[in-house]
Design goal:
Helices cover 7% and strands 43% of the residues. It has three helices and 22 strands. It starts with a helix and ends with a strand. It has helices at residues 3-10, 127-132, 251-258; strands at residues 16-20, 26-31, 35-40, 45-51, 79-80, 104-111, 117-123, 137-145, 149-157, 163-165, 167-169, 172-174, 181-184, 190-193, 199-202, 213-218, 224-228, 233-240, 244-249, 269-276, 282-284, 289-300. The chain has one domain: Distorted Sandwich (Beta-galactosidase, Chain A, domain 5), CATH 2.70.98. The relative contact order is 0.16. By secondary structure, the protein is mainly beta.
């Protein structure tokens, strides 16, 4: 659908408008009394979010992010599905699945009773996707933008055999400086340290960053808090339907190789991802659905 058609069917006066943006991609812009956000229809990719009581965004996107058909956006909240990380058997398949780089269709919009704005998108299957994922599934992302941000990813198995999925909301959170934050909520958890060959370790105390961090914390449903002294706020990440949490910062060398962070962009973000990965992949039975939900909020200190 064109932006004009989307506006006619799903636009909300004063809250939700669709427009063509960089790279010829279509974006939904949400602005209400509580918060503002931008969402790209390619990948159902929430690009940014700022509650109105915060001077700085809570969801970060790189100033050098590339917007192009078939390419992932550096920042925001990429949807990793139907696998997380590398594919188990096919090295040529894209890391973190294909959902974040293909078109999604808008299937609903609404103003909720509390004044927040809701938009729902459904993954559009194509021949390339079916070659990588030959299963009859329906995938839907529901985003609610207000003083809080809620992202819900629902997988429905419409086939006659169980399917196994790995998934994550790979959300980049805006911070003051990567060297000055502490992430609480994962104390005592087991994690796979991907920087150290995937060794299993136990988290002692809060998570702090003094170099590259790439960890999959398993068997945890706990909420996490990013304590940010520089921005004088705490960012809370609550979740349901998720038994793993991923913490990631590329640090300087890896960020430089990626080319779309900018000279210091990596210092101003950290990924705290609500996931089902590694030990915690999910099996969805025929006719059943699974929903992973993450809720983000910020509190000024």
């Amino acid at each position: 659908m064109t932006p004009a058609q989307l506006n006619a069917q799903f636009g909300i006066a004063g809250q939700l408008v669709f427009e063509e943006g960089q790279g010829g991609l279509t974006f939904a812009r949400i602005d209400n009394a509580q918060g503002e956000a931008v969402l790209c229809l390619q990948g159902a990719h929430l690009v940014s979010w700022r509650p109105k009581d915060q001077a700085e965004p809570v969801v970060w996107v790189s100033d050098l992010a590339k917007y192009a058909p078939g390419k992932s956006i550096r920042g925001g909240a990429p949807v990793c599905w139907p696998w997380f990380g590398a594919h188990k058997t096919e090295s040529g398949f894209p890391g973190h699945g294909y959902a974040r780089t293909v078109p999604w269709a808008v299937t609903g919009s609404a103003v909720l009773a509390d004044g927040a704005t809701e938009i729902t998108l459904t993954l559009i299957e194509n021949d390339q996707a079916r070659a990588q994922w030959p299963h009859n599934t329906r995938v839907e992302l529901r985003a609610v933008v207000g003083a809080k941000l809620t992202l819900s990813l629902t997988t429905t198995n419409q086939g006659d055999a169980p399917v196994e999925i790995g998934e994550a909301l790979h959300t980049y959170l805006r911070i003051g400086d990567i060297g000055e934050i502490a992430i609480t909520g994962l104390e005592g958890c087991t994690y796979l340290d991907k920087v150290d060959g995937g060794q299993r370790k136990t988290q002692a105390g809060a998570v702090t960053c003094t170099g590259e961090v790439d960890r999959v914390y398993v068997n945890t449903t706990a909420a996490c808090v990013i304590e940010d002294a520089r921005l004088k706020r705490n960012v809370l990440i609550e979740k349901t339907g998720s038994a793993a949490t991923v913490v990631w910062t590329p640090w300087t060398e890896k960020a430089d190789k990626m080319g779309d962070f900018g000279p210091d962009g990596w210092r101003r973000m950290v990924c705290v991802e609500s996931a089902n990965a590694a030990d915690n992949v999910v099996t969805v039975a025929p006719g059943q659905s699974h929903t992973l939900t993450a809720v983000y909020s910020a509190q000024t200190l």
